Amino acid sequence: MKVILTEKITKLGNIGDTVEVKTGFARNYLLPNGKAMRWTRENVALFEAKKAELQARQDAARQAAEANVDAVKNAKLHMIRQAGDTGQLYGSVSTRDVARMLKDVAGVAVESAQVLLGAPIKAVGVFDTKIALHPDVIVPVKIYVAQTQDEIDALVAGKVLTFGTKQVDQETESEKPADTETPAESAPTESDAQPADAE
Q1: What domains lie within the chain, and their CATH numbers?
Q2: Is 117 exposed, middle or buried (0-12, 13-18, 19+ CB in 10 A)?
Q3: Which residues does 35 contact at the CB level (< 8 Å), separation at least 6?
Q4: Is the pTM of this model over 0.85?
Q5: Are strands 137-146 and 125-134 parallel, antiparallel or unpaired?
Q6: Cβ neighbour number for residue 187 with a 10 Å cutoff
Q7: Inter-residue contact 150 to 144 (CB < 8 Å)
Q8: pLDDT, tens digit, for every residue of 22-68?
């Protein structure tokens, strides 16, 4: 389906771009969330008439995101979870968990799709990820996951945690960044987004 983007979307395009996307992605995400409109000659004219207003809204959203950068950077994302003898979690830490904690500790509300975690966290340790407050405002953060507050304090201090024969410390875990793509169901992929020439 050909659509006109009404806001900048990472890996898809900028405001005003005409792109070809999968029909389901357009119907389930872009159109209902006001992020795009169907491409028709009438909508092209409508977009041009509203372009200044949409751009102003985009600029305001970016400024609001920039105002939250320090709060996100300074947020203590410390998660206490039960784990086995090897440091593997019983369950996992998901993007939804990180979004909820960010709201609780920093007062910044984000959707789980804005947490660029990649795969869920399934072990004790320190994990680097990013929070996309806006497509142009992406903030790196560290997530500390341990069984107790004492273990989290040790990780924050850069100490090593030992589980059987496995050692976990800040340096080894943070070398494995978890800032890959957002989950496919919540963010566009390259196969979803192929720029289309405007007619």
Answers
A1: 2-67 (3.40.5.10), 70-174 (3.10.430.100)
A2: buried
A3: 5, 6, 7, 9, 29
A4: no
A5: antiparallel
A6: 19
A7: no
A8: 999 989 988 998 888 999 889 888 888 888 888 888 888 889 889 98
